[in-house]
Design brief:
heterodimer, A: four-stranded mixed beta sheet, 6 helices, B: alpha+beta, six-stranded mixed beta sheet, four-stranded antiparallel beta sheet, 7 helices, 18 strands
Chain lengths: 273, 449
């Protein structure tokens, strides 16, 4: 009884669907199916086994698991759509089953709602700005979406803007604003005049923005600087002199390919010189 | 796709860096990027990498009838294509200006300089001649296409072997490569283009501009030279006025560079020749290093860090050691509290003591209005960050707030005069936070995910 059922499950999926828990941290490829924890028991000995109904109100296995980037719901399972490492984050407040996502690497940015990005103003048309964010279409930014917006303090064509997306889906052009939901700037707006803008991969940006990033702490110890990270792969750096800015830019670009030992060596060399 | 626009701050930064003789990747003014030449399995196929700019060159030949007015000469045909994978801005039909300019320059450099002996391409005068066709494809655009393309063209031509032909009376025999070894083309000299980018109306000059430098340049001077210091072509575009001695200086630099590049080319050709003769493996697959990670790999960039020493020492000498900043709430009166230290009050000078809270998100914004200090709450110096705080009203030990996702302001230089909040009457004014701390580090952090 168990045999034909398990064979059927295999042939359906192509290969046996693995439990998501066992694959955490490993590389997954597009097309793989993953089982969520509460489904493992059902699939183990074969799908057609009858389970005794439990009458006491134990925690019902229907926890809400959030499906992050690189994963898609496929019936009861998760289908992997990007290649990369599978990650999981436990829920903070105890409700829900946490978040699963795939840590993948790419250079081309796709606008996502809520992301903070650095854009370049390319045109003014009507009462909106057209801002290039590295996606397939330029985003639109209204004149009024700045804190304290007046006719005088508008950005010009060619300025750098740090803002977030309010609308970003594949059917419409993305829209961004430079204020948050309370109407305050919160660090967004026009980025200052000097400094250097350069582009890195999206994975590096996420690594640098992680809560305890060593790279940023070490860089901060070198000399005073200002940095803005955009989730679209753009970084704006400013230090006191051009030389320092160039060093920073090169370090951040190179951090992607260095192990932490090499990085520590470079920082100690810079700190000495 | 449209080209990514160049922002004002990038342009300004690049021009300022050039004025200080600094390039983005740490090169000197007259330095070329690394040139890498690799050959394919067929004769006449090569890839040239100038930094990240890559050009693929392929030479092929065919027997055709000659042109009517040049009955004893072979035909040369050059074609440079900007592939769509080279840059997002290259689209079919959208590249015409640049394409025409590059093609024209290639033709003048290679055809008009007579680097290839076309008379030797003649098989039967007036009837059959060789048509040599050079196809160049740009695979990646990181600046200075013309240099890379000219190197690729000349390397491919030197590497190419055409089938052997023998003529006996009226009989023409074309031998296949198996019957007789193919013969190389007869090349007189190797013209190589060297590009000079000018900035600020000809004041500053850079050799081998990369893509960003090309975007901010005023004009471009291309000199095609061979190693015998003969100028084959010279072209100036961009409409800048150049002085005679500038042009002469560029030609001297070009002479030096061309000599180096020619040496590199000859060495590469020799290596390939040796490998083929010894029966070793050759081709593009062999030029890729085995057992090494090449994706996401960067070449080492030499960066000059000599200036940093003085600056860093200055800064470190002046600054005091950074102290621990712990956000603790300060209870002013029951119901109003202050977290952290705000920036300078931008609402101007007010009679009442008022401090705008800058740390914490919108939800936590607490504005203090007209604090009357006679409620009996004594607070000791707020200015000194670090060190124990004394809570006279019996509050608990300082509460450390959880990681806020909002802006975090860390001030490296603590105040020289720690602010003291005097217990005061209504008319007293509270000292405001000193404006502009000399060294400030502001981190705009947005947690990922």
């Amino acid at each position: 009884m168990a045999e034909p059922a398990s064979v059927a499950a295999e042939s359906l999926a192509g290969s046996r669907a693995r439990a998501a828990r066992t694959v955490l941290g490993q590389v997954v490829l597009p097309g793989e199916e993953l089982l969520l924890p509460e489904q493992e028991d059902a699939e183990g000995p074969g799908g057609a086994v009858e389970r005794p109904l439990s009458l006491n109100a134990r925690a019902c296995s229907r926890v809400r698991v959030v499906c992050g980037p690189g994963l898609r719901r496929c019936g009861d399972r998760l289908l992997v759509t990007k290649c990369g490492r599978l990650r999981h984050k436990e829920p903070g407040s105890g409700s829900g089953g946490g978040v699963y996502w795939v840590d993948s690497q790419q250079k081309r940015y796709v606008p996502v709602k809520g992301d903070h990005v650095i854009g370049i103003v390319t045109a003014k048309s009507g009462d909106i700005f057209k801002v290039d964010v590295g996606g397939s279409e330029p985003a639109s930014l209204s004149y009024l979406s700045f804190e304290g917006a007046t006719k005088r303090n508008r950005p010009n064509v060619g300025d750098l803007i740090y803002g977030q997306f309010v609308v970003a889906n594949k059917d419409m052009e993305p829209e961004m604003v430079c204020i948050d939901s309370c109407g305050r700037a919160n660090g967004m707006g026009v980025i200052g005049q000097d400094g250097l803008l350069f582009k890195v991969t999206l994975g590096l940006i996420r690594k640098l923005l992680a809560p305890d990033c060593e790279i940023i702490q070490e860089v901060g110890k070198l000399y005073p600087l200002e940095i803005v990270f955009g989730m679209n792969g753009r970084i704006w750096v400013k230090a006191k002199t051009i030389q320092q800015t160039l060093i920073l830019a090169n370090i951040l670009e190179a951090c992607e390919h260095m192990t932490s030992d090499q990085r520590k060596q470079i920082f100690s060399r810079l700190a000495e010189s | 796709m449209k080209e990514t626009p160049l922002s004002n701050c990038e342009r300004r930064f690049l021009l300022r860096a050039i004025e200080e003789k600094k390039r983005l990747d740490g090169r000197q003014t007259y330095d070329y990027r690394n040139i890498r030449i690799s050959f394919g399995t067929d004769y006449g196929c090569c890839i040239v990498e100038l930094g990240k700019t890559r050009v693929l060159g392929q030479v092929s030949c065919e027997l055709v009838s000659p042109k009517l007015n040049r009955a004893t000469e072979g035909i040369l045909f050059f074609n440079l294509e900007l592939s769509q994978m080279a840059a997002p801005a290259f689209e079919p039909g959208r590249q015409s200006d640049l394409l025409v300019k590059l093609n024209r320059l290639m033709e003048r450099c290679l055809r008009n300089s007579k680097c290839i002996d076309t008379e030797s391409l003649c098989v039967v005068a007036g009837e059959k001649v060789w048509q040599i066709r050079v196809d160049l494809h740009l695979l990646n655009h990181d600046g200075n296409i013309i240099d890379a393309a000219s190197i690729a063209a000349i390397v491919a031509l030197c590497h190419f072997r055409r089938p052997d032909v023998s003529v006996q009376g009226d009989e023409v025999t074309l031998y296949t490569p198996e019957e007789r070894d193919p013969v190389p083309l007869s090349i007189h000299h190797m013209p190589i283009c060297v590009s000079f980018a000018f900035f600020q109306q000809g004041t500053y000059l850079l050799v081998d501009p990369n893509e960003r430098e090309e975007r901010v340049m005023d004009g471009l001077l291309v000199i095609a030279m061979n190693k015998h210091r003969e100028i084959c072509t010279i072209q100036s575009s961009g409409g800048i006025m150049l002085l005679k001695d500038q042009v002469l200086r560029c030609s001297k630099i070009a002479g030096v560079k061309v000599a180096e590049i020619t040496e590199l080319i000859l060495k590469a050709l020799e290596n390939d020749q040796k490998v083929r003769k010894e029966g070793g493996k050759f081709g593009f697959a062999e030029s890729i290093a085995n057992q090494r990670i090449t994706a996401f790999k960067m070449e080492k960039a030499p960066i000059d860090t000599s200036d940093v020493e003085e600056k860093a020492e200055e800064i470190i000498a002046e600054a005091e050691p950074p102290s621990e900043v712990v956000s603790t709430p300060v209870l002013w009166t029951p119901g109003t509290a202050q977290i952290g230290e705000g920036v300078e009050n931008s609402w101007g000078d007010l009679e009442d003591s008022e401090k705008e809270d800058d740390e914490g998100g919108g939800d936590q914004a607490i504005i203090l209005d007209g604090i009357k200090m006679d409620t009996g709450v004594e607070v000791s110096d707020i200015g000194s960050q670090g060190g124990p705080k004394h809570w006279k009203n019996g509050a608990d030990a300082p509460i450390i707030l959880s990681d806020s996702e909002e802006e975090e302001m860390i001030i490296l230089e603590p105040d020289k005069n720690p602010k003291k909040i005097r217990t005061q009457t209504t008319s007293a004014k509270q000292e405001k936070a000193p404006s502009k701390k000399p060294v400030k580090r502001r981190k705009k952090k947005r947690a990922a995910n």
